[in-house]
Amino acid sequence: MTTSRRAEREAAKRRRARRGALVAAVSSVIVIGGLIALVLTSSGWPDVKDTFFSWSEFKKSFPDVARAFWLDVRIFVIAEIAVLILGLAVALVRNTSDAALFPLRLLATVYTDVFRGIPTYLLIYLIGFGIPALSFTETPIDPILLGGAALTLSYGAYVAEVYRAGIRAVHRGQRDAALAVGLTEQQALRFVILPQAVRNVAAPLLNDFVSLQKDVVLIAILGPAGLAARQAQLYQSIDFNYTPLVAAAVLYLAVTIPLARIVDRLGYAGGARI
Amino acid sequence: MAGAKVVETVGVTKSFGEREVLHGVDLWVREHQAVALIGASGSGKSTLLRCIDLLEEIDDGDIFLDGEVITDPAVDPVTIRRRLGVVFQAFNLFPQMSALENVMLGIRRAQGGSREEADHQGRELLARFGLDGREDDRPDRLSGGQQQRVALARAFAGKPRALLLDEVTSALDPELVGEVLAAVRDLKSEGVTMILATHEMSFAREVADTVAFLHEGRIVELGAPGDVLSRPQEPETKRFLKRLLEAHRL
């Protein structure tokens, strides 16, 4: 008796699944096909195709743009490491309660407020043109260095807040237990609280990586040679064709999409743990 | 019977803001003895244990460990906590560490043991609490009873002068209570000095040498388990035990 009902239910389940797959396929074809048709039949499409998606332009500019992109990647990696260190240092300072550290705490609070409040674009301008204008002999004037510093300061402020949220999210009982086994406050932070805090915020931290990676392009406003975006603009200004910019965008996607997938995976894993 | 007092509280008073949680608590536990703290939720049992481990700062009174005052502001709480062991109601195991690492952390970082010593002692302790084979499991792979036994091993790793057990079975499913109580019973029979806050009256009767009934932050009645639990003198104690009886908890 039970087996026949089971077979019946499984057949119904299969029917539902087949119907769902069919509906999804048909609606995808209609929506995506419709969008493509809309673009391809627009009166301006032949021009857009030539100026943005020219295969010959792409082939011509891609190797140089890709070489330049290597500089973007190096800036990103160095800035990211600096951001992680700066953010952690600021978060730890803000987390202290020692009276002697009050000036440092005040400084850290002002830093996060100010640098989170200024748009990154403006900050790169201010630091990139402001510091050289000071005309001290020792001040660096390399725009890549200054742009990287501006990005680091801007993202450091965000990341400090992310770390702080992670530290606050660690249950109070963890600190109690760490102290109860005889650890000092610093040991409790280092061995018990920080490892959990960093795990708590791994997904939002990676999210900020993706953002930072894209914002490296903003350094181009300071005018240094060698960045992918500058290289693409160079080609564009010679041939009056925007395809090299699309090539640069493709390179950026090649890094940001894998990073985004890692964020997703971490997000799910984190959810499962909680 | 009358060993030296290991832990003693004298007139301990503690408030959280306006709310006074402990009013002049006098309590002591002698070497190799067990004191059971009983009382309703919010009567101050947990707070008293937290104050003894210096996890809370007391407002008035004094606490002594082996006759030496530990609530003096000049005393470093870290050195005192290294001489006491605490087990919490909610286990509070470190979730990112294996069972073994949970036990090893204090041995290495607080007691200054080498990695080998910590590893060796940690394995021995886990085996002693019936956890051999579970050394590498994270807490979330263990049952509540196993987690609490890891917490017991962790608290015991520092060779504490006294164990402070804060309702160690209250967060457990009923079928897991027995294994944790058995572990505590073993410790007691080995002569470990302990103060235990508990809702398990039969266990208090069996293990404790002294039962203290805490009511609204005061010790209302204190004596041998047979006296306090079977022949209570104070009306508050009678009312508390009657309510437990009605709830079939006695």
Cα end-to-end separation of chain B: 28 Å
Mean pLDDT of chain A equals 88
Q: What's the overall average pLDDT of chain B, rounded?
A: 94
Low-confidence stretches of chain A: 270-274
Count of distinct strands of chain B: 10
Q: So what's the oligomer here?
A: heterodimer
Radius of gyration of chain A: 26 Å
Structural class label of chain B: alpha/beta
| Number of separate strands of chain A | 0
Regions with little confidence, pLDDT below 50 for 5+ residues of chain B:
none
Straight-line distance between termini of chain A: 42 Å
Question: Any idea what the radius of gyration of chain B is?
Answer: 18 Å
Greatest interface and its residue counts? A-B, 19 and 27 residues
List keywords for this structure.
heterodimer, A: 274 residues, mainly alpha, disordered C terminus, B: 250 residues, alpha/beta, 6-stranded mixed sheet, 9 helices, 37% helix, globular
Walk me through the structure.
The complex is a heterodimer of chains A (274) and B (250). Chain A is mainly alpha-helical. In chain A, 83% of the residues lie in helices and 0% in strands. Chain A contains eleven helices and no strands. In chain A, α4 packs across α6, α6 (143-168) packs across α8 and α6 (143-168) runs antiparallel to α9. Chain A starts with a helix and ends with a helix. Residues 270-274 of chain A have low confidence and may be disordered. By secondary structure, chain B is an alpha/beta fold. Helix content of chain B is 37%, strand content 25%. Chain B is built from nine helices and ten strands. In chain B, the strands form two sheets. A six-stranded mixed β-sheet of chain B has the order 6-7-8-3-9-10, with helices on both faces. In chain B, strands 2-1-4-5 form a four-stranded antiparallel β-sheet, with helices on one face. The mean pLDDT of chain B is 94.
